[in-house]
Write a structure and sequence with these properties.
about 525 residues; alpha+beta; nine-stranded antiparallel β-sheet; 13 strands; disordered N terminus
């Protein structure tokens, strides 16, 4: 369509920064969506507030508070956007994408998505499901024979195969892989020493990817099946896992082409996601954000400085150190150095794999979902009913997954405490009692995902909101107060707004209130939450 062609015309140049770009550049990214008002222009804000019942005060307070986090060195920089109906209420970019080079953060800054990759790969699988080429309740062994007869660890303390390992008592299906109840677990990241039996079990595989002994997705999945027993019976509990990496290989088998090629064909090209892929081209490396973390993480990755700066402090919020190479050309996502195991889950080896993208690209992906599978004026990616089936109810409560609600005790700064839901794209808020929600919890019906470097997106159908927030650091909690929480600010901004939707956001209409549970992953290691899920 015209939108796609217009979008493509910018591909060989620096992409538009939504903060301060021309109208033509804006329309190349968000055609049909009104630009936000300036938070400094009181008359314009008053006019919109009167017309729609909006309150821009919380967004002004958020912007001031989160910019303070940048000034304090808690985060290097950030970019964020709030879309309400067909109007952008807020877009901002502040601080540095690369602090050493003093490269400013922009909405076209390329970032590592890490686990946010999972939502895109899940969407790609649903394209194949719509085409009738596979079914969510197919057993994975139909597509990856190595999983046929995979056994279950003899006990939760097992960290290696044993003759006491048990046979499966339930099916290891594609649906269970998507919702992390297949029995798989996760290895540790950033070369940290394995601490749990699951991490020890997968450590051989983690190191094999890092050393390139395992160099493609087929070998990765076959090694996963043959080296590591399942951590628990399929369908018995939620445990964050390599499930979407296995789904990536299923996509390769069903589509008969590499994962990156299918993603390009089915999602990136028709949606105009020109900066999304498994590596950054040499010509675009100047737009790649640096990655930062604590001294301990830098040490684990062998990138700690020889002498500590004078302002270093050995407690959070951590002083940030560069993690992914000293310059963009050294990155594990640079063209020619990127991981050859295309990770549908978002992380391979010590610190590689998964997609890179920009806020410009990911907001188009999110708006496609929120509008029922098609950007206004764009190419249809999924049928509206498919999107509703994906996002509209808690899949974990289905008998095809676990059959009951799941609950977590929470991890401070990582997950909210309480029951939680999961759908075909990621986390689902399902607690209808707003008064019982913690500040970092999804509201009922809200769905989204986060990556370990603090990239987040969510769609809130009840409020007609799409919210994205990106930075690139892995150890600090990016906002230290409720005022600096963009999700709370966005909800307050539209709390009393007139709500006749001009662009209905995809949701499910038949979710029983009693089954609506809640959890909000605030980033970091979602795997930490799995140990307390029941």
């Amino acid at each position: 369509g015209n939108v796609r062609v217009f979008r493509k015309s910018f591909a060989s140049f620096a992409m538009p920064d939504l903060v301060g770009c021309s109208d033509a550049e804006w329309d190349s990214i968000l055609p049909g969506f009104a630009r936000p008002p300036s938070l400094r222009k009181r008359k314009e804000l008053d006019s919109l507030s009167a017309e729609f019942g909006l309150d821009f005060g919380p967004l002004r307070a958020y912007q001031k508070a989160v910019q303070k986090s940048v000034a304090q060195g808690i985060i290097p920089g950030y970019c964020s956007i709030v879309v309400w109906r067909d109007r952008v209420l807020h877009v901002d970019a502040h601080g540095f994408a690369d602090g050493e080079k003093e490269t400013p953060m922009r909405t076209d800054t390329v970032v590592r998505l890490y686990c946010m990759t999972k939502s895109i790969v899940s969407t790609a699988l649903m394209v194949l499901v719509e085409q009738g080429k596979c079914d969510l309740d197919d057993e994975v062994s139909r597509y990856i024979p190595a999983f046929d007869g995979v056994r279950v660890a003899a006990s939760p303390d097992s960290d290696a195969p044993s003759h006491e390992d048990r046979p499966q008592q339930a099916k290891l299906t594609l649906r269970r892989l998507m919702t992390h109840c297949s029995g798989l677990g996760y290895g540790n990241e950033f070369n940290r020493a394995p601490e749990t039996p699951a991490e020890r079990s997968y450590n051989r595989l983690v190191q094999a990817v890092e050393s390139v002994a395992v160099s493609d997705l087929r070998t990765f999945c076959e090694s996963l099946a043959s080296w590591c027993p399942l951590r628990h019976q399929p369908g018995s509990r939620f445990e964050y896992s390599y499930g979407l990496d296995v789904i990536g290989r299923v996509i390769e088998v069903v589509a008969a082409k590499p994962l990156d090629s299918f993603l390009q064909e089915a999602i990136f090209q028709p949606l105009g996601l020109v900066d999304t892929g498994f590596f950054v081209r040499h010509t675009e490396l100047s737009r790649l954000a640096a990655l930062y973390g604590s001294l301990d993480t830098a040490r684990a990755l062998g990138q700690a400085p020889t002498s500590l700066p004078k302002d270093h402090q050995p407690k959070p919020p951590w002083k940030l150190f560069r993690l992914d190479g000293e310059k963009p050309e050294d990155s594990a996502w640079a063209e020619g150095s990127a991981c050859s195991v295309h990770s549908g889950g978002g992380l391979m080896g010590h610190n590689r794999g998964g997609l890179v993208s920009t806020l410009n690209d990911v907001v188009r992906f999110c708006l496609m979902l929120s509008c029922g599978g098609q950007l206004p004026g764009g190419v249809r990616i999924l049928q509206e009913q498919t999107v509703k089936d994906m996002v509209g109810h808690d899949w974990l409560a289905m008998p095809e997954c676990i059959g009951q609600q799941q609950v977590t005790q929470g991890t401070p700064g990582v997950t909210a405490t309480g029951p939680f839901g999961w759908n075909g794209l990621g986390e689902l808020g399902v607690n209808a009692d707003k008064s019982a929600l913690s500040p970092d919890a999804f509201e009922a019906g809200e769905y989204g995902y986060g990556g370990i470097a603090e990239t987040f997106w969510s769609v809130n159908p009840d409020r007609n909101l799409v919210v994205l927030w990106f930075t690139q650091q892995v150890d600090n909690h990016s906002w230290s107060s409720s005022v600096a929480n963009l999700w709370l600010a966005a909800r307050r901004a539209v709390a009393h707004a007139a709500m006749p939707p001009s662009l209905p956001l995809a949701s499910g209409a038949s979710v029983p209130q009693a089954s609506r549970t809640r959890r909000r992953i605030v980033g970091k290691t979602t795997a930490e939450a799995s140990a307390s899920s029941a």
